[in-house]
Structure formats: C-alpha cells, structure tokens
Amino acid sequence: MTDFETLLRALADGRVDFIVVGGLAAAAHGATRLTQDVDVVYARAVPNLERIVAALGPHAPYVRGAPEGLPFRWTVETLLRGLNFTLTTRIGDVDLLGEIAGGGSYEELLPHTIELEFFGAPCRCLDLATLIRVKRAAGRPRDFETIAELEALLEEGDCGR
User: Fold this and answer.
1) CB 88, CB 1: distance < 8 Å
2) How far is residue 141's CA from residue 117's CA, in Å, rounded to a whole number?
3) Which neighbouring-strand residues pair with 114?
4) Hey, which residues does 104 pair with through a beta bridge?
5) pLDDT tens digits, residue range 90-142?
6) What is the value of pTM for the model shown?
7) Which residues contact 146 (CB under 8 A, 6 or more apart)?
8) Do 25 and 131 touch, CB atoms closer than 8 A?
9) Are the beta carbons of 150 and 136 closer than 8 angstroms?
10) What's the chain's Rg over C-alpha atoms?
11) Which has the closest alpha carbon to 79: 104, 45, 110?
C-alpha cells in the first residue's frame, strides 16, 4: 500500500523538481478512479538527481518486479544511465519518469502545470487538458476509461466560466 503523503512529502521536502502525472493527477482534478502508485516526471539536471537520491534513499528504493537480491545501486549515476524507473520503496510505489509520451520532459511539461497542495506540500501537477493529452498518447485501456471522466470534468470546468 502506497503512503502517498509520505512519498510526496519526501520529494517536496527534498526540494525535488517534479510534476505529478498519472492517476494521482487525475484524482487531484476530481477523477474517481483509484491509483496504486505515484507517477512523477522529474527534472534530469544533476542537482535535482542528487535531491531525488537523497529524498528517496532512506526509503530503500528498488526496481519494482525485479527478483530479490538483484544488484541495484540507488545513485545519481544510476539515474543518469536510465530514464524511467518503476520503483518500490518502504513507503510505496513510485514511477520516476524522465519523459512521457505526448508530453515530453519536465521542462517541456512545466508550462502545462498548476501548483496544488498534496497533503500540505506544494507540488506541480499537470493541468487537466495536458493530462488528457498524455493519457491519450499512452494508449492503455485503463487510460481510455479515465479520459472519458477527465473530459467530462474539463467540460464542466469550461461551462462554469
């Protein structure tokens, strides 16, 4: 079970540059679907990678689904050599995404974010229109189900203006 509060606070308190995407972003916009993990797009600059390693290190990150005992070193070097990481930690699952389909990198997505508070911690989150766009680009069946709900929320928001 993911402890969303502790995970997001670890990143926010660690001054990590990240954007909440995926199911948690959908829930922040009012979607009713449940999510099991935290999906974030992170800035790939070395100082930010250092902050990610420091923020998540105490929670024992490990590659989700990998056999136990597989060598895995949680370092800046590891993050530099990869792009997207699906991790499990003592506080739950987190997907660290260097870029996402239909949206790109942290820097490309940043203009399409809003600042929200998650459990008292300020976090950047994809705006609703961009969230719909990236979910459509991901093309997974579960995303298509969520898109319909997100589009209805977007329509409701437009009607109220």
Assistant:
1) no
2) 29
3) 125
4) 100
5) 999 999 999 999 999 999 999 999 999 998 999 999 999 999 999 989 878 77
6) 0.91
7) 23, 26, 31, 33, 135
8) yes
9) no
10) 16
11) 45
